[in-house]
Write a structure and sequence with these properties.
- This protein has 192 residues and is α+β, with helices and mostly antiparallel strands.
- It has 2 domains: 14-74; 97-188, 2-Layer Sandwich (Alpha-Beta Plaits), CATH 3.30.70.2830.
- The protein has helices at residues 14-73, 79-94, 99-109, 147-158; strands at residues 114-123, 135-143, 162-171, 180-188.
- The chain has a 4-stranded antiparallel beta sheet, covered by helices on one side.
- Strand 3 (162-171) and strand 4 form a beta hairpin.
- It is rod-shaped.
- The model is unreliable at 125-129 (pLDDT under 50).
């Protein structure tokens, strides 16, 4: 006969305790992995915040520079230059002025006895009566005979691409250069 002196009978809990210990171990490992992930994410977030702060500082510096440049452009003495730049930037953005077309158009107008020595493009004319987008060509032309300049001026005025031309300066021939040189400005409205 067996006598049990304990207040509760003996139970076999060893397997159940092993399962609980294993589950606890798995939960502790999971907790350690989660803590490691949290610390890693905090470090990455710290690096990200530092990068954002640097970018923000660069942005603020660029905004200060832009404000300075805008204040310079807003001055009354710079208004003409600013409006000219806006117009020229619009022309460039639309690709409205093509050097190839400029030279082709000048070739159709230029008398055969005349040479194009230099051309500067574009400049905004003081006034445009036609309402079209025009630029002002500043050309240096040369001819062996001064009468050829008159033919050029007449052709420019008769053309629908060019306007009235004005002669800014003239230079007589020299021993090294036998051409009469003329600096001519003319409004030019290129066909798009």
């Amino acid at each position: 006969m067996m006598i049990n002196l304990a207040s509760q009978p003996f139970r076999r809990e060893r397997a159940q305790n092993a399962v609980w210990a294993l589950a606890s171990l798995v939960l502790i490992c999971t907790l350690l992995v989660m803590v490691a992930i949290i610390f890693r994410e905090r470090a990455l977030a710290s690096d990200l915040h530092r990068g954002i702060a640097q970018q923000q500082a660069q942005l603020e510096k660029a905004e200060r520079e832009q404000a300075h440049f805008s204040s310079v452009l807003a001055k009354p003495e710079n208004e003409d230059v600013f409006s000219t730049n806006v117009f020229l930037n619009q022309l460039i953005a639309r690709r409205a002025i093509s050097w190839t077309h400029v030279f082709n158009d000048l070739e159709t107008i230029m008398p055969s006895e005349m040479r194009l020595i230099a051309v500067r493009l574009p400049q905004v004319p003081a006034e445009d009566q036609s309402g079209k987008d025009t630029v002002q060509l500043d050309m240096v032309v040369g001819a062996s005979n001064p009468g050829v300049l008159i033919a050029l001026l007449k052709r420019l005025e008769a053309s629908n691409l060019f306007g009235a031309a004005s002669v800014i300066s003239q230079q007589p021939p020299t021993q090294n250069d036998p051409l009469y040189k003329y600096r001519v400005t003319v409004n030019y409205a290129q066909k798009l």
